[in-house]
Each structure stands twice: as structure tokens, then as C-alpha cells.
């Protein structure tokens, strides 16, 4: 039996969805694609993938598979591979298509184009050449993780992937450690424990959330302090796609002994100015004051 809305007692009536067949305007269309569930694709994205003159993708196999799932035919169109290793070679071909008045749909590997993928220069060069650039919003691992994390979302900072080398990673952490915002990180599942251990060197109690396999069958969200989560992760790391979020930094106690301790190790490997800048950023202090202390310590050593 149906109610007044047309639904049955056993569930809602299936909807009939028609994919658009009208060609989009001549522009570079940045198409957000699912980060897990193929059903997260938007109807507008399907419209553009179905009708764009030229298709480009970070991973052509993944885009072709996505199109097959949703019944979109290539109809003689080829998909241009556009990724980190060939972007400089392929960019002129994409720009030439735009110059001919064609519509180009660019899809990242997964999620929103230009977020930790090679689309940045393509969009910039297209805009600088006077072509239209359109965004087709949709899935984003960073925003999905922020939504479920339970951490403050009024101010957040996406910092991408950490460097793999230990020293470079610590320097990278120091560049955002003191920022009053929720920090969003993409990390290799094999190195996530190492990242948390680096955080624990100075902020073991920092609120931390690990999102694994977002929108997929085995989606998991782990919450705790950096120290608690580091202890839960096996030495070999995790599996799947990982997003790590760190809450706002803890108030730092910046007395003279604390500053001297922070500077001691850095002065062994960095110039005075750079060591002072890192410590000043970590504790939210004026650089000139920390620089003066670093110079004093340097002279004491000499």
C-alpha cells in the first residue's frame, strides 16, 4: 500500500535519474570523484563526464571504471593521462583543446581535484590563458574526515603529505605545530605510527583522530591523544587510505629552561636564525626574543 507521498510500506520508491546529454560550456571542468563509495558521485559530475569533449584523469583506469559503473560510454573519446610524471608534457594538449573551444573534464585519482594532486598548474595555466575554470564540487577526504572527527571545524589547516625523511618531517611538523587550528594530514598507512611518535616528542596529549578507509566497507575512526593512538597502532602500520587530524595545540609553557631545552638540539644542526624561528613558531613567541636567546647560547658554547 502506498501513502500520500508515493512510498510503500516496504521502502521508498526507486528514483529515476537521467544523465544529462547537453554539452557543457567550453571550460576546464574540475570533477570531484568518490573517495570510496562509487555512489558518492554527483549527478552534475555524471552529466559532464557523459558530455565533455575531452576527458583527462590522474588515473585513466579508475576514471574508466567509474564511468563503466554508471553506464557512461566513451563514444570514441580517449582519456588523457595527466599525473605528476607527465603533467608538463600533457598540459599543452589540454590547453590546446580549450583553445579550440572544447570542454575538458579533469578528474583526480579520488576526491576533489587540486587537493594533493597534480591539477594545480593545469587550473592555474588555464585561468591565466583566459579560459573558464569550473568546479564540480563533491567528495573530499579532508572535509569528510573533519566532519566525523569531532574536532573544532571553525578553523582548519590542510597540510598535505608529510616528508618521509625524519629530519624533514620534524621540521615540517614545527611549521604548523603552533597554529591555532585543526590540522588535517594525509599520511601513508605504513608511516602513520611514525608520524604520531614524532608528535609525541613534544605534544603527547594533543587531541588526535585517525580516519581510515572513509566511505568504504571497513571505514574506521580512531580518537584519542597522540600517545594513546600511537600505542594502538602496530609497528607495521595500518591498511587503507588514511587521514590524520590534530586538534588545537596545547598551551605551551615557555619559560627560559623550556626554550633553552628546545634550542639545544636544534643549534647542533641548524643555523641560529632557523633554529630560533622553529622554536618561536612552536611556542608562539616573537622571533627576535628567541633569536636573542639563541645567540646568547651560541656564544656560551663558543
From TrEMBL:
InterPro entries listed in its UniProt record: 4pyrrol_Mease, 4pyrrol_Methylase_sf, 4pyrrole_Mease_sub1, 4pyrrole_Mease_sub2, rRNA_ssu_MeTfrase_I, RsmI_HTH
Pfam family, one: RsmI_C
Domain annotation RsmI HTH: ranges: 254-298
Major location category of this protein: cytoplasm
Subcellular location: Cytoplasm
Molecular function, one GO term: rRNA (cytosine-2'-O-)-methyltransferase activity
Keywords per UniProt: Cytoplasm, Methyltransferase, rRNA processing, S-adenosyl-L-methionine, Transferase
EC number(s) recorded for this UniProt protein: 2.1.1.198
Keyword NAD: no
Keyword Repressor: no
SUPFAM superfamilies: Tetrapyrrole methylase
Reaction catalyzed: cytidine(1402) in 16S rRNA + S-adenosyl-L-methionine = 2'-O-methylcytidine(1402) in 16S rRNA + S-adenosyl-L-homocysteine + H(+)
Gene Ontology annotations for the cellular component aspect, listed alphabetically: cytoplasm
Residue ranges annotated for the Tetrapyrrole methylase domain, each copy included: 28-230
Family: Belongs to the methyltransferase superfamily. RsmI family.
Function (record text): Catalyzes the 2'-O-methylation of the ribose of cytidine 1402 (C1402) in 16S rRNA.
Name the record gives this protein: Ribosomal RNA small subunit methyltransferase I
Lineage, opening ranks: Bacteria, Pseudomonadati, Pseudomonadota, Alphaproteobacteria, Rhodobacterales
Amino acid at each position: 500500500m502506498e501513502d500520500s507521498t508515493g512510498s510503500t510500506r516496504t521502502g521508498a520508491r526507486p528514483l529515476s535519474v537521467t544523465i544529462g546529454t547537453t554539452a557543457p560550456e567550453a571550460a576546464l571542468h574540475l570533477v570531484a570523484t568518490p573517495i570510496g563509495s562509487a555512489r558518492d558521485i554527483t549527478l552534475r559530475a555524471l552529466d559532464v563526464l557523459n558530455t565533455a569533449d575531452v576527458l583527462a584523469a590522474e588515473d585513466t583506469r579508475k576514471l574508466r571504471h567509474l564511468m563503466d559503473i554508471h553506464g557512461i560510454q566513451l563514444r570514441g573519446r580517449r582519456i588523457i593521462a595527466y599525473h605528476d610524471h607527465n603533467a608538463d608534457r600533457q598540459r599543452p594538449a589540454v590547453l590546446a583543446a580549450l583553445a579550440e573551444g572544447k570542454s575538458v573534464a579533469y578528474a583526480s585519482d579520488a576526491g576533489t581535484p587540486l587537493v594533493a594532486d597534480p591539477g594545480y598548474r593545469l587550473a592555474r595555466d588555464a585561468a591565466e590563458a583566459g579560459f573558464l575554470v569550473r568546479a564540480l564540487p563533491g567528495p573530499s577526504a579532508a572535509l569528510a574526515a573533519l566532519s566525523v572527527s569531532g574536532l573544532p571545524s571553525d578553523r582548519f589547516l590542510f597540510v598535505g603529505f608529510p616528508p618521509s625523511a625524519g629530519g624533514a618531517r620534524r621540521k615540517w611538523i614545527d611549521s604548523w605545530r603552533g597554529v591555532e587550528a585543526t590540522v588535517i594530514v594525509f599520511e601513508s598507512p605504513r608511516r602513520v605510527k611514525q608520524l604520531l611518535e614524532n608528535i609525541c616528542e613534544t605534544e603527547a596529549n594533543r587531541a588526535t583522530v585517525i580516519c581510515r578507509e572513509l566511505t568504504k566497507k571497513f571505514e574506521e575512526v580512531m580518537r584519542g591523544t597522540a600517545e594513546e593512538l600511537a600505542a594502538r597502532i602496530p609497528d607495521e602500520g595500518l591498511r587503507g587510505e588514511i587521514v590524520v587530524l590534530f586538534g588545537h595545540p596545547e598551551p605551551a609553557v615557555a619559560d627560559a629552561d623550556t626554550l633553552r631545552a628546545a634550542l639545544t638540539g636544534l643549534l647542533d644542526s641548524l643555523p641560529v636564525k632557523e633554529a630560533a624561528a622553529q622554536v618561536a613558531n612552536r611556542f608562539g613567541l616573537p622571533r627576535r626574543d628567541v633569536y636573542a636567546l639563541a645567540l646568547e647560547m651560541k656564544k656560551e658554547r663558543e
